[in-house]
Structures are given as structure tokens and as C-alpha cells.
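sry for the spam today, last one i promise. C-alpha cells for design, 905 residues
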């Protein structure tokens, strides 16, 4: 077989003046198969190398045709390193005129030299000449490649600096940016002692601060930061500090740039400066121009007069003054920026600069505590990391005024934020006992709201107690004894025990006292005693936070009372949740599944507590929306990682089944949906089909593809009716379907073809509407349980009496009772609810449901549920005689009916 492939290679590779246009690709494919085959002999590889080398030197072969051959030779060298040297010399001996071919050959030669270090001297001998040749070629892409790969080509630093400085004036912005980044890389990789060269590079980068292109200004900021610090390091006299101040002020001038990326680069660069005058640092924290005077250890800030302070510039050859006002309010602007990327970068800069000055650190703390309430979790985490760094270097002097905002992070929705806050408390040095008490209260509040944090909370309590032994002793003496503390800790460690009148995380009241105030639960009595002692502890602590602590321990009960009192505010709260569901979609897409699920779980729990009212249907629809978001959050990791596409249908199949049922309930169990709402639901249905077709075991499901086409047609029709353009998700899906094609013989495609459509999907915001009505039902089986079964005779029909309540059922609806022993033994009974009276809003009646297939056994259980037939479904799922012809959406929880031949008296 090997000999046959080799013969074909010889035949197909160009060996005459008549070169076939189709021959080289076929030959290269066969060559690649020989290279990658581990059983290919050395003699065959040598013959192949000889043939490929001859093709390179063929005089009639176009220059651009060399590129695939060069790629094959590179692959040959990487898989068979002993051939690297002959391949290197073969490529080096080429006489090339095409810039692209020349760049490609240089790239292969550099790769060969990197893998075989003995080839580096030979590469350096001729690479500079070829590099300079490419730099003066008219092709922009070739010049760009040359600058990007200058370091690989071993160009001498002084020659490279000259070339890069020249390219900073290139008319093409991307070449200017690459040249500046080349200067940055060069500054990091070599030792430069020529002060004049450093100053020239730095000044050229400063000039490009005013460039019209964002990418150039970003690169200029990076270059000034690196070469400016090198310039400062080369000065060993008193001018060193002035140069560092000038560098800092020069970078400050870019923090108000119109470009988001430039502002981020500017703040990142400020964080790298290791020496700045204290008055300049303090000026960054105030928008007003200030003068600084130090009286003992007390810092006073005053308004400046008309004459503003200036610093000498970085360039001695082009002297100019940099106004100190460049630094005015730099970090105020940064921490208030509209983009979280800038706010995070500003926090990170404070992280390093706060080490330089205790006074600056103290003033910066006033800004940082406000950032702890930032909308972005990433920014809050960076602020906490900055506080932790300040504490490590003994720069964190927390006052009681700061504690309220800081302690709020201990009850943050994000577990990582709470953990970061506790890391700060582990190493913080507290000034007095009142602040110590506030920290203890904050940790206890953290424990009560998030019992899952118990281990870390107790560890932090132990840590701050060890570091502040005197404060801990002051709190304990006369306030509490050992038995009470043990009882309280036992109370906290149990997530199911809360004192009278309080609620668990699901809103259920756990313990209700009897009329005489007593209880038969000894654990409850002990926890009440501990609570009384805790109240004494709160009374003994100073500040208003302790009073707040008592209030937050009843936060769920207060929320319920608030909801009952002001229905309008409740609707606003729900609308806020629905808006945030859209916002957290980005977190789902990047894989923050745990945080998203925790947030959605809390929102679902709060939504489920709302009392029944005229807008109960809208609340139910909103709850359904959150369920779908939760299922998508669980599903998404299976589709954002290519490796998980190969998994079986186990967990994935269960989740897809739940999503299918939940979306169907959203579509069929609500009346009064607007056309926009219908379009929203149809897109969710479409997504469900796409996810099913994207899974490895479901992609051959022809019925799902038919449903997808049908749903897509409905979306197009409805979009046209609303005069709306289809979403990007729908448009991309149509393109994918066009590529796949469809025939009567079935689809021909793989699951990855739908991948792009899945990635483009975005969860839209549902608009809260009080006009929605929820279609639901209630089943009641009175007088029946495991100990009191209904009687039956084996083999004969039995009647099962059910209490049925229907809500918002119209005449167009078709209802079925499903009575099942298991999946294989089930019956359906059509429910003609018109004969039972009532109105469309509510119908309540008793119905005797017949069950014919009684088992020949002493006892068994029948599972009963009421379902709504999906009349608009195209695919018949149930083909049993007399039963529903299409799928059912169930309107209530399944009830179990116990039947027995022996009735207990």
C-alpha cells in the first residue's frame, strides 16, 4: 500500500513543464498521509523529501504554488525532526521573488530553527537581509508579518529599534500599532543602557497619544509606560523622581480618552508606576485642584491659588511642561466610568498605588467602599482584592463609617464575593471594639442568610478572634456564657431551625407557638434562649448596624408584608427580575452556571411567595420564564464546550425533556398572550428543537426537524404580520437549514452544523402583563391514602371519585384525565366540563373517573393527572383508541390513588 501511494505521489508531483492545476493538491494530500502514518519507512520519507524539494526548485512552478509545499515540508520536519536540517537548507537555497512566498519560507525557517537550536546561527546570517527586504515591500500584509515576527527572525536590537521607530510613522494605523508593540516587546526582552535611544522611543510614543486611531493610542500608552519606566531607571540623580512624576502625569492625560480600550490601558499603565509624589497621588482622588500640607501626622487639603504646579516633561530635547491638573480626579473618573472594564482597571491601579502612601490609601478607601456596591461582580471582586492588598501592607485603616458598605458584601448574592470579603476580614486590623462587634454581627448575618458558608464563616470568626483577643473577651464577658454560645452555634449550624415568627428560605414559618406561649420542641426552646442572649449582645454593641442586624434577620417576613401592602411596588420588583433575566444571559453563555443558578433560585423562591391576585397569571408566567432560564443555564455547558457534544443523552436528555415540557406549558397554559409574547415563546420552542438536533444522539430525529421547519414558518408569518425583522438567531438558523437541505429520505447533517445558531441565541426580556390568565387545575382525592384505600374487585372496572377545580378553561380546550399504573398501562378519559356548570374563570365539580384495567392483585396504585391537549401540534404522539391524538400539557400535580381488595376497618 505504501509503495502504491509513493508511486502516485511521484506521478502527480510536477516533473515537466506541463504542470496540471489539479495535480499539486492531490499530491500534497497523499504526501501528508505518508508523513502522518507512523509506519512509513525512513526510505519512503527520504524519497518524499527529495520529490518535494525538486518541486520547490522547479523553474516553471508559480511562486504562490510553493505555499502548500512549504506547509507540507514544515509538517514533515515537525513529525520527523531528523529531517529538519536538510529541509532547512533546501528552503534556504530557494531564489524567491514573491513577497508572500518569501515570508512563508522565512516563517518555516524560523520554526525549524526554534525546534533545532543548532540552526539559529545559520538563520541569523541571512534573516536580517530578507527581513529588511520584506519591510520595504509595497504589500501591507507582508510588512505587517515582518514586524510581527521580527523577534523570531533574530534581528539585532539596534537595527530593529531603528526599523520600528521608522514604522511608527507608517501611513497605515495597524502598522504603527504593531511597531509600537514591537518597541514594548523589545524593551522587555533586552537590556538598554543608551539613554538617548530610550528617550527618543518614549517621546515618539508620547507624540502618538494624539493619533486618530484607537489601536495606535492603545499601543502608544503601553509603549510610554514601558520605555518611560526604563528612562526613570536610567537616571540615578535627583531628577529621577521628577521623571517618574512626569511619566505618571503623562499617562493621566489618557484616562479621559474617548476610547474604552485606551482608558483601560491608561489605568493599567498607572498601576505599574512604582514612584509618585504624594501630592500628585492625592490629587487623583479629588476633582478640585488641591495643595497638600503635612502637619505632624495630620493631612490637610486646601484649594490651590491661580498659579498651577507643573512638572518637566519626559523629553529633554523637546522641553515642555506637564500640568499637575492632568491628575485631578483621575480615579474619581475611573471608578465612575460607564464601562465596568474601566472601573475594574481603576480598582486594580489603586491595588498597587495604595502601597506607596498611607495617606493616599486612607483617602482611596472612601472611594473603594462605594465601589463595593457596583453592578458588576467583577468590579466588586477587584475592589475587595484591592482592600485585601491594602490590609496585607498595613494600609487599610477601616473606620466605622466604612463598615456598613463593606459588611454588605458579606450578604452579596455572589458566593465568590462573600468569600472575597471574608478573606479581607481574616487579615484586617480593627481599631476598636465597636468595629469588632460590627464585623462579628456581619459574619453572623452572613451565616443566617447563607448556611452553606458555615465552615468558612466559623473559620473567619476564629481568625479575627485570635487576632483581636482583647476585643473578643470584652464582647463575651457578662453578655453570654459557654452553654448559651454552644446553643446558639447549634442553632446556626442547622438550616432548619429558626426562632418563632421567622421564616426559612422558602418563606414557610417553621415554628408556631401555642396559645399559652409554650412549645413541646426542646430544640426550639434552646434556640429561643440563644436568640434572647443574641439580642442582649446586640444591645451591648454600639452603632446602628446592630439594630439593622435584628431587622435583616426577619428580611423574608418583611418582604412578604411589603408585597401585600403595595401591589404596584411588587409588580415593579417582578419587572426588575425579568429585566435582569435578560442581563444574566451573558453569564450563562460564558459558563458562570453556579452563580446564575443561585440567583435564579432565589428569584423563583421570592416570586413563588406572591399572593394570589388579579395578576396571578402574569406572576405564574414570570415564574415559568425563570424556570426556562434555569434549565438553559444547566443545559448551556453541554453546548458551549465542543467536548461535551460527544456525551450521551443521560443528563442532557433529562434536561432537554424538562425544557420541552416547560416551554409547552408556557405556550398552552396561558391566555391573553400578545403577538410579541407568542413570538418570544416560538423562538424558545425553536431553540429547544435546535438543542435537540445539536445533541449527538438526537440529530437523526426526522420528526424534530419537521417540527423545526413548521415552527420556523410560524415565526416568519408572525414576524411579517408584526412588520418585524427576524432575530439573528432565526436568520442564522435559516442559513444552516439551507446548507443542510431536506428531502423525503431524511436529513443529512451532523450536530455541529447547528452550533453557530445556538451560540447566537439570546434570551429576550419578557414584558410583564397583568392581563395574562393562567390555565390550571386542582385534583382532590378525599378520604384516600395508603391506610385508607378505595375498594376494588380484580379484573372489573372501578370508579375513582375526584374533586376537580378548573381555572380559565374555554370551550376550545380539550381536557383529558390520565389514569396510569405505569407507562405501559394507562387510560385516558375525556372530560366534557360544559356539563358541570360554572364559568370560564372557575369550575368546581365532582367526577367519577372509570378505570377499566384493574390488576389481578391485592392492591395497586393509580396515578391520576389532568392534561390539556395541544391542538396546534402537528405530530401525533398518542395513537390509542379513544384517547388524545396529540401531546398533553398537564395542568396539575399528579395524584396517587390507592386501591385494595382488602379494606381496613
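last one done:
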Amino acid at each position: 500500500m505504501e509503495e502504491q501511494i509513493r508511486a502516485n505521489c511521484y506521478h502527480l508531483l510536477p516533473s515537466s513543464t506541463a504542470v496540471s492545476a489539479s495535480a499539486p493538491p492531490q499530491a500534497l494530500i497523499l504526501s501528508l498521509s505518508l508523513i502522518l502514518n507512523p509506519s512509513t519507512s525512513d526510505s519512503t520519507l527520504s524519497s518524499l523529501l527529495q520529490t518535494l524539494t525538486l518541486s520547490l526548485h522547479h523553474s516553471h512552478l508559480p511562486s504562490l504554488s510553493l505555499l502548500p509545499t512549504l506547509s507540507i515540508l514544515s509538517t514533515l520536519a515537525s513529525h520527523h525532526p531528523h529531517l529538519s536540517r536538510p529541509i532547512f537548507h533546501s528552503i534556504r537555497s530557494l531564489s524567491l521573488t514573491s513577497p508572500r512566498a518569501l515570508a512563508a519560507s522565512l516563517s518555516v525557517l524560523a520554526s525549524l530553527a526554534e525546534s533545532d537550536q543548532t540552526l539559529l546561527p545559520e538563520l541569523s546570517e541571512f534573516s536580517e537581509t530578507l527581513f529588511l527586504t520584506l519591510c520595504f515591500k509595497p504589500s501591507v500584509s507582508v510588512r505587517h508579518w515582518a514586524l510581527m515576527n521580527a523577534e523570531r527572525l533574530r534581528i539585532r536590537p539596534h537595527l530593529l529599534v531603528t526599523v520600528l521607530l521608522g514604522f511608527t510613522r507608517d501611513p497605515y494605523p495597524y502598522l504603527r500599532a504593531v511597531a509600537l508593540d514591537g518597541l514594548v516587546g523589545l524593551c522587555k526582552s533586552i537590556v538598554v543602557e543608551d539613554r538617548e535611544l530610550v528617550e527618543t522611543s518614549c517621546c515618539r510614543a508620547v507624540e502618538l497619544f494624539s493619533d486618530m486611531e484607537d489601536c495606535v493610542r492603545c499601543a502608544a500608552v503601553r509603549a510610554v509606560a514601558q520605555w518611560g519606566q526604563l528612562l526613570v531607571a536610567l537616571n540615578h540623580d535627583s531628577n529621577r523622581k521628577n521623571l517618574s512624576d512626569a511619566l505618571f502625569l503623562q499617562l493621566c492625560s489618557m484616562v479621559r480618552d474617548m476610547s474604552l480600550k485606551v482608558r483601560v490601558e491608561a489605568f493599567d499603565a498607572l498601576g505599574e508606576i512604582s514612584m509618585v509624589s504624594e501630592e500628585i497621588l492625592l490629587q487623583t482622588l479629588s476633582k478640585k485642584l488641591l495643595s497638600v500640607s503635612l502637619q505632624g501626622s495630620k493631612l490637610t487639603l486646601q484649594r490651590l491659588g491661580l498659579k498651577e504646579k507643573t512638572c518637566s516633561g519626559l523629553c529633554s530635547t523637546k522641553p515642555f511642561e506637564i500640568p499637575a491638573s492632568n491628575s485631578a480626579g483621575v480615579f474619581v473618573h475611573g471608578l465612575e466610568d460607564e464601562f465596568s472594564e474601566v472601573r475594574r482597571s481603576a480598582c486594580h491601579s489603586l491595588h498597587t498605588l495604595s502601597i506607596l502612601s498611607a495617606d493616599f490609601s486612607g483617602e482611596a478607601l472612601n472611594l473603594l467602599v462605594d465601589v463595593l456596591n457596583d453592578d458588576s461582580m467583577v468590579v466588586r471582586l477587584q475592589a475587595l482584592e484591592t482592600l485585601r492588598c491594602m490590609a496585607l501592607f498595613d494600609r487599610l485603616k477601616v473606620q466605622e463609617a466604612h463598615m456598613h458598605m463593606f459588611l454588605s458584601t458579606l450578604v452579596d448574592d455572589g458566593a465568590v464575593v462573600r468569600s472575597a470579603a471574608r478573606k479581607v476580614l481574616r487579615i484586617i486590623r480593627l481599631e476598636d471594639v465597636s468595629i469588632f462587634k460590627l464585623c462579628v454581627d456581619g459574619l453572623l448575618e452572613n451565616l443566617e442568610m447563607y448556611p452553606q458558608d458555615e465552615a468558612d464563616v466559623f473559620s473567619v470568626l476564629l481568625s479575627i478572634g485570635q487576632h483581636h483577643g482583647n476585643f473578643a473577651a470584652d464582647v463575651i464577658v457578662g453578655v453570654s456564657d459557654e452553654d448559651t454560645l454552644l446553643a446558639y452555634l447549634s442553632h446556626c449550624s442547622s438550616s432548619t431551625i429558626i426562632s418563632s415568627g421567622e421564616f426559612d428560605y422558602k418563606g414557610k414559618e417553621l415554628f408556631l407557638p401555642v396559645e399559652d406561649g409554650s412549645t413541646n420542641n426542646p430544640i426550639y426552646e434552646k434556640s429561643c434562649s440563644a436568640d434572647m442572649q443574641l439580642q442582649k449582645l446586640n444591645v451591648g454593641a454600639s452603632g446602628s448596624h446592630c439594630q439593622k442586624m435584628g431587622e435583616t434577620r426577619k428580611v423574608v417576613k418583611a418582604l412578604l408584608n411589603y408585597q401585600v401592602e403595595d401591589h404596584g411596588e411588587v409588580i415593579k420588583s417582578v419587572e426588575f427580575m425579568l429585566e435582569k433575566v435578560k442581563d444574566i444571559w451573558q453569564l450563562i453563555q460564558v459558563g458562570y452556571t453556579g452563580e446564575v443558578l443561585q440567583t435564579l433560585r432565589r428569584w423563583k423562591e421570592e416570586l413563588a411567595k406572591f399572593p394570589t391576585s388579579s395578576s396571578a397569571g402574569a406572576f405564574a408566567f414570570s415564574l415559568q420564564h425563570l424556570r426556562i432560564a434555569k434549565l438553559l443555564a444547566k443545559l448551556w455547558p453541554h453546548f458551549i464546550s465542543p467536548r461535551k457534544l460527544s456525551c450521551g443523552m443521560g443528563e442532557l436528555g433529562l434536561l432537554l425533556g424538562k425544557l420541552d415540557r416547560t416551554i409547552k406549558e408556557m405556550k398552552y397554559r396561558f391566555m391573553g398572550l400578545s403577538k410579541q409574547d407568542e413570538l418570544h415563546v416560538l423562538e424558545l420552542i425553536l431553540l429547544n428543537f435546535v438543542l435537540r438536533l445539536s445533541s449527538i444522539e438526537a440529530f437523526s430525529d426526522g420528526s424534530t426537524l419537521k417540527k423545526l421547519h413548521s415552527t420556523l414558518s410560524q415565526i416568519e408569518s408572525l414576524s411579517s404580520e408584526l412588520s418585524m425583522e427576524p432575530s439573528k438567531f432565526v436568520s442564522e438558523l435559516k442559513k444552516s437549514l439551507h446548507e443542510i437541505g431536506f428531502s423525503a429520505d431524511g436529513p443529512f447533517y451532523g450536530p455541529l452544523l447547528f452550533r453557530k445558531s445556538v451560540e447566537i441565541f439570546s434570551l429576550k426580556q419578557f414584558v410583564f402583563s397583568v392581563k395574562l390568565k393562567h390555565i390550571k387545575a386542582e385534583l382532590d382525592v378525599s378520604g384516600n391514602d395508603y391506610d385508607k384505600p378505595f375498594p376494588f374487585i380484580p379484573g372489573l372496572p372501578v370508579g375513582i371519585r375526584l374533586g376537580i377545580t378548573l381555572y380559565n378553561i374555554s370551550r376550545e380546550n380539550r381536557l383529558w384525565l390520565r389514569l396510569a399504573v405505569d407507562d405501559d398501562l394507562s387510560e385516558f378519559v375525556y372530560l366534557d366540563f360544559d356539563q358541570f356548570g360554572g364559568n370560564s374563570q372557575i369550575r368546581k365539580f365532582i367526577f367519577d373517573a372509570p378505570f377499566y384495567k384493574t390488576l389481578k392483585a391485592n392492591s395497586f396504585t393509580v396515578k391520576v393527572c389532568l392534561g390539556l391537549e395541544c391542538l396546534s401540534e402537528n405530530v401525533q404522539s398518542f395513537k390509542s383508541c379513544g384517547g388524545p391524538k396529540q401531546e398533553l400539557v398537564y395542568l396539575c400535580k399528579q395524584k396517587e390513588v390507592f386501591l385494595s381488595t382488602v379494606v381496613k376497618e
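Residues 338 and 776 are 45 Å apart (CA to CA). ok im logging off now
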